[in-house]
Amino acid sequence: MQRPIVCATRGGQASRRTQEKAIALAKERGANLIFLCIADPSFAPLADDALEAALSDELTRLGRSMLYIAQARARKQGIEATAIVECGPVWDKIEGFLKDKNAQTLVIGAPEEDVMLQAFGAEKIHKFVERIEENTGVDVVVVT
Amino acid sequence: MNSFIETEAIIVILMLVATLVAIVARRISLPYTVSLVLVGLFMSIWRPLDVEVTPELILALFVPPLVFEAAFHLDFKLLRENLTPILMLAVPGVLVTTLLVGGIVALGTGTAIAVTCTFGALIAATDPVAVVALFRALGVPQRLAVAVEGESLFNDGTAIVVYQIALGAALSGIFDPVEGVFDFLLVSAGGLTIGSVLGWLLAQAIARVDDRLIVTTLTTLLAYGAYLVAEEVHVSGVLAVVAAGLVSGNVGLSKTSPTTKIMLFNLWDFLAFLSNSMIFLLIGLTVDLPKLWEQIIPIIIAVVAVLVSRAVVVYGISFLISVLRRRKPHIPISWRHVLFWGGLRGAISLALALSLPSVLAEREMLLEMTFGVVLFSLLIQGTTIQPLLKRLGLIQHSDPHLARETKLGRLFATHAGLKALEKLYHEGLLTSEMWNGLRQDYYETQGQLIDDMNQLFTEYAALEREMLLKARQEALRAERGALGDAQRRGLISEHTYEQLRTEIDLRLEALNMIYASTQKGWKALEEMQEK
Questions:
Q1: Checking phi first, is residue B395 left (phi over 0); if not, alpha (psi -120 to 50) or beta?
Q2: What is the spatial distance between Cα A144 and Cα B75, in angstroms, rounded to a whole number?
Q3: For B355-398, what is each residue's pLDDT tens digit?
Q4: What ipTM does the predicted assembly reach?
Q5: For the residues B463-479, what does the mean pLDDT come to?
Q6: pLDDT tens by residue, B226-256
Q7: Residue A82: pLDDT above 90?
Q8: Architecture category of domain B54-277+295-369 in CATH
Q9: CATH number of the domain to which A57 belongs
Q10: Does the beta-carbon distance from A55 to B461 stay under 8 Å?
């Protein structure tokens, strides 16, 4: 059984290209594909617990909708993908998820996606790729 | 009683006219405030309404809600980021404008410099309502919008203070610069302090009483109360309202529930709309065209003086800032052009001109000059700012956004057309062959539009995310409406309704925050592409 390919996406500018790349890789390698979306409400630190919970929940729902769309697109190309939304700090969650699923490849989008998501500067992406490869041994594909 | 009914009738007529103008202005793409002035001018020819515009009416009744609303919505973080240019334009900028306009008008008309400096001060207050409305509609960079709005908020206050000092000098013939500076600092700082304290007190009250009706009433009290208290102790009422709005909007708002926030925003949007409508309609109604024509030469001199001084202030201060703050963000050249041409004059200048005492021999001339400058700025600058923004490439509603809107609009229209045809078919007005033929054609058009949208989303994937956000907002609003219906029909209690509505309001607030972060992303993306 091939280790899965994880495509981390949050609907930024490069997300469609990122998903297409992940689908193509899954087809080519015959691997399972997982679309992963991390809902991270930390971009707006809030004192109000109820609002923070609503923000978290809405980000999760938005992520779920986007991943359903990605799943449907993969299905059209003959790939049955899994969609998972998790909540928390983006980088830590992705790293934990990759370890947990024993993934072979991570596909992420950059640099436009960086701008849309604010937290993903080009330098940060580079550092993240290094960190993931070092800590998990997972091969990272950055789609621009 | 009769005069009360007459006043009420005038208010109703003015509101009706303002609403009609708002509807028409949307269709003809003319700034709303400019349209109001034009309609007011048109109405003034026949003088169907006997309206006396007093300075108190404008300053004490219409200006507080306008200023408060703008300050209330202004993000303190953004304001702080732009504080240097804003304060430079609003303090030294007003002083330089006063002296330059005063000097040029004195030279051109032969009037005493003390009198023309009074005119320079009253005309120094910018009123960018028409410009800011355009900014919002066209999506110009947020920092530029904050700079224009921030400058206007603060220079309203400083211009009034300088005006009072200049007028005192014009009437007495004595001007002590030291006393003038002291008065300026005292009146400005006094107003800002009173407003800040009252705004902070309101923020504390909001934190303890989160009841939407009480909080909205308190903000109304604050807007007018801050003005009245400050004026009562002879400090700047307008600056007090600015500070009160800023503090309560930035400190107090974070402590309110989304339900209260929505009600507050709606109320202040409405009050600002109403005040603006009244002010600009009254400006038009008050202008006496024959009198204006009699003073055409001084008016031309005044317009030239105002434009020259604005150019000196904007370009000079921007240059100074870029020299002094080499490593910090400066004002881009294109923004300087907008700040120059967007420095419209309006309500405050007019109110101050109307408050000129009748003992001042040149009162009539100064009044007509003010009307002339206000009309020029509204009718010429106000109507040409949009092409300028386009030419400078400052309109940020990007091509992909516009393409999505066009396709979405066509989809809506096609869907409505299909529904209408279906209705005709069910009513027996279309045969099944006709219906099938037409339906097929509509389905093909719909299919093509959906394919086009998909293509657009492939190219600009972030648009899809935005679309999902907007769809979710629409769905939540529909859910809130359904809850209201259920409560009215007695299916759920008031308590349950309030609880569920608060939940939806929280979700709407959360979506607004997500949407705002997306918008920041678009702007960053476009800035990156520009570089």
A1: beta
A2: 34
A3: 888 888 888 899 999 999 998 998 899 889 888 888 887 775 66
A4: 0.87
A5: 87
A6: 999 999 999 999 999 999 999 998 888 777 7
A7: yes
A8: Up-down Bundle (1.20)
A9: 3.40.50.620
A10: no
Q: Which of A44, A55, A118 is the closest to B521 by Cβ?
A: A118
pLDDT the model gives residue B137: 67
Domain range annotation of chain B: 54-277+295-369, 399-530
User: Which residue range is the domain that position A83 belongs to?
Assistant: 5-143
- Is the CB of B509 less than 8 angstroms away from the CB of A116? no
Which pTM does this prediction carry?
0.67
Whether residue B433 has pLDDT greater than 50: yes
Predicted confidence at residue B326, as pLDDT, reads 57
Q: Does A111 sit behind a cis peptide bond, omega within 30 degrees of 0 on the bond before it?
A: yes
d(CA B377, CA B388): 14
Q: Which two three-digit tokens encode residue B76?
A: 């303190």
Confidence of residue B83 (pLDDT cuts 50, 70, 90): confident
DSSP state of B57: I
Q: SS3 string of chain A?
A: CCCCEEEECCCCCCHHHHHHHHHHHHHHHCCCEEEEEEECHHHCCCCCHHHHHHHHHHHHHHHHHHHHHHHHHHHHCCCCEEEEEEECCHHHHHHHHHHHHCCCEEEEECCHHHHHHCCCCHHHHHHHHHHHHHHHCCEEEEEC
Residue B465 to residue A55, Cβ atoms within 8 A: no
Interface with A, mutate which of B464, B470, B504 (most A CBs under 10 A): B464
Domain count, chain A: 1
Beta bridge partners of A139: A105
Provide the token pair at B149: 């709005």
